[in-house]
Amino acid sequence: MDDPQHLSAPTTPADSSPTTTVMRAIVQDAYGDADALQLVHIPAPEAGADHVLIRVRAASAHIGDWHVMTGQPYLMRVMGFGFRSPKARVRGMDAAGTVAAVGANVTAFRVGDEVYGSCDGAFAEYATARVETLARKPAILTFEQTAAVPTSACTALQALRIGEISAGQRVLIIGASGGVGLFAVQIAQAFGAEVTGVCSRSKIELVRSVGADHVIDYAETDISAIEQRFDLVLDMGGNRTLSQLRRCLTPRGTLVLVGGEGGGRLVGGALLRSLRAVALSPFVRQRLRMVVSATKAEDLQTLNDLIEDGKITPVVDRTYPLSEAADAIRRLHSGEARGKIVITV
Ligand SMILES: NC(=O)c1ccc[n+]([C@@H]2O[C@H](COP(=O)([O-])OP(=O)(O)OC[C@H]3O[C@@H](n4cnc5c(N)ncnc54)[C@H](OP(=O)(O)O)[C@@H]3O)[C@@H](O)[C@H]2O)c1
């Protein structure tokens, strides 16, 4: 990725005026695997009237970055990500950094504030974000830890809320060792639930270390065949059928479908299953729900409170320099990561 032909322009000092800054960024001009990612110098973006320009210190990767990189499932291309090639050239969505400039309408943040959230083109020295997707960085976390939070933790929080989690409930988290799952276990514990996590054998201790009361190895145990029933099931991993998942629920339990890889290249198996679940829900006693998550400032603030109270600690697997972003994405997709993959900028 350090191919000199992509590094022709000099980088100005990191904190110089953003209007004249040429920045390093990870871009992609065609859909493909991680080899399609290039480190180049391009002009830094400018903050629109309702936007903040962030000097990115750290960014994190999640499986959504892989989907945008590959353009799969193909439905995404029709939904506006770019039909033949990615519409947005710079990869990355989650970042933590320092406010470098604010748009004319922005009053919530000032230059120099330490912030985090979802933004456009996080794998770069500068990225823009809408104010509604940002919050102040928790003082007790590093930029690297903070960057791990936005999409994954907001998804976990929103999924648990959709499931109407409450204290004392028995909650099953399928995919507990993943980016979303490691937050979901901690947040469910903070709500006072009894949490059972499902993951691979090699990550059992990891899931236990973030507070799961019980952990099941999915290769060893067929979770739809266990006797125990759960008030709430969050599904983030594997591609079990709806009937297999419903078997894990109490008669009036709630299933929240977050995601899962595999399935068709055209639409993606998880989306079809989620839509079927929502259509079926009115006709059964169990509640079947799906999540379409979004990073929101008020949810980041709730997460900040949980972080400051010591209820959530982001788990970072590895950090990679920006120049090795392609390796970061390869590790993300390998399934070997034990926590979030972070890119330092
Ligand atoms: N609906 C939304 O708005 C939304 C938002 C964010 C993410 N998502 C989706 O949610 C899913 C999870 O995201 P993520 O970032 O947490 O992904 P991730 O970090 O790749 O985690 C995947 C999880 O699935 C587990 N898993 C794999 N195979 C499994 C199986 N057969 N049975 C049970 N668990 C299995 C993995 O366990 P091991 O690693 O231990 O094998 C891991 O815990 C993805 O499909 C993503 O696209 C949806």
Automatic annotation (TrEMBL):
Note the SMART domains from the entry: PKS_ER
Q: What is this protein called?
A: NADPH:quinone reductase-like Zn-dependent oxidoreductase
Give the organism the record lists.
Answer: Microlunatus panaciterrae
Describe the location of the Enoyl reductase (ER) domain by residue ranges: 32-343
Q: InterPro entries this protein is in?
A: ADH-like_N (IPR013154), ER (IPR020843), GroES-like_sf (IPR011032), NAD(P)-bd_dom_sf (IPR036291), YIM1/Zinc_Alcohol_DH_Fams (IPR050700)
CDD domains assigned: MDR1
